[in-house]
């Protein structure tokens, strides 16, 4: 049995419900309470390490302060919010960088234990836990667009193809004898910032991702299960939101097994309760024995 954990950044439970994304909602779903320390809304670099460790940002220490103090960043964030009103796409992308990356260009790796630790728990990028480079790459593209060195079209393409590489990884990972296959996918966050005032374009992104998740569902073995998580949602112009283009508190948890975790800090325990132990001795012993049998050395 493999537990597939899809960390789908910025999937907003309200939007997933409104758009009828049945693969994102799975058998059972809930609005998951997320965490925030540096800003008034949840932040990618803080929340994912919290989800993996079960610790609040003040406990795992990944708050993204960097050189700046939190008051300065909060003030900067408030100024950025007012720029949203202009509706200019460049300023919105600039806002997203200020609010979501800030000093996080060198997002670190937590020291505390996570549910992703262990030889039979396969991970393909998890912010603040395992190989931050994919997130840094996308954040870097944001900067390129903001500085007018790259087109928005290219950012969108790179975001989709990055996401595709993660979904493809899941399809391969579940064919192996592992407990967990977990990956972080950033496409809804990036395009959510860009399309927070364009419901049709935003909905299309949800439908695209919903389709990819549907393909993973179809590929699951009989005993395999799926857990979908987000760290926050996205405030948009067509809902009664205060700051369209910023992160909402409407994170999601959905699953194919039992009831999903209600709180970001409960995820680690939830995973440990649902994962199936693999006996490494047995796994290792089976492989040569099968090969020996095939070769006719043993009956
Ligand atoms: Zn995020």
Please tell me about this protein's structure.
With 299 residues, this protein is an alpha/beta fold. It has a single domain, classed as Alkaline Phosphatase, subunit A, CATH 3.40.720. The protein is built from twelve helices and eight strands. It has a six-stranded mixed β-sheet. The chain is globular, with a radius of gyration of 20 Å. The two termini are 28 Å apart. Zinc ion binds at residues 9-10, 44, 189, 231-232. InterPro entries: Alkaline_phosphatase_core_sf, Phosphodiest/P_Trfase. This is Type I phosphodiesterase / nucleotide pyrophosphatase.
List the defining traits of the structure above.
299 residues; alpha/beta; Alkaline Phosphatase, subunit A; 6-stranded mixed beta sheet; two-stranded antiparallel ribbon; 12 helices; 8 strands; binds zinc ion
């Amino acid at each position: 049995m493999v537990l597939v954990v899809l960390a789908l950044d910025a999937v907003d439970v309200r939007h997933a419900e409104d758009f009828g994304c049945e693969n994102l909602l799975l058998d059972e779903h809930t609005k998951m309470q997320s965490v925030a320390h540096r800003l008034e809304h949840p932040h990618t670099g803080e929340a994912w390490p919290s989800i993996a460790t079960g610790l609040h940002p003040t406990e795992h220490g990944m708050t993204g302060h960097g050189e700046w103090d939190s008051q300065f960043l909060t003030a900067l964030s408030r100024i950025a919010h007012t720029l949203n009103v202009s509706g200019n796409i460049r300023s919105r992308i600039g806002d997203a960088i200020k609010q979501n990356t800030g000093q996080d260009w060198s997002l670190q790796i937590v020291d505390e234990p996570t549910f992703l630790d262990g030889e039979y728990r396969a991970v393909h990028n998890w912010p603040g836990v395992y190989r931050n480079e994919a997130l840094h790459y996308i954040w870097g593209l944001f900067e390129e667009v903001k500085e007018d060195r790259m087109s928005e079209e290219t950012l969108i393409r790179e975001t989709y193809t990055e996401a595709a590489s993660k979904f493809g990884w899941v399809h391969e990972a579940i064919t192996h004898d592992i407990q967990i296959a977990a990956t972080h996918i950033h496409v809804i966050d990036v395009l959510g910032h860009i399309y927070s005032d364009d419901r049709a374009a935003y909905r299309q992104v949800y439908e695209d991702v919903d389709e990819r998740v549907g393909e993973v569902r179809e590929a699951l073995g009989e005993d395999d299960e799926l857990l979908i998580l987000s760290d926050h949602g996205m405030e948009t112009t067509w809902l009664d939101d205060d700051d369209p283009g910023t992160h909402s508190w409407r994170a999601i948890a959905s699953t194919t097994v039992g009831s999903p975790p209600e709180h970001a800090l409960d995820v680690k325990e939830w995973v440990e309760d649902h994962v199936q132990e693999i006996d490494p001795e047995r796994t290792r012993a089976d492989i040569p024995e099968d090969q020996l049998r095939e070769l006719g050395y043993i009956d």
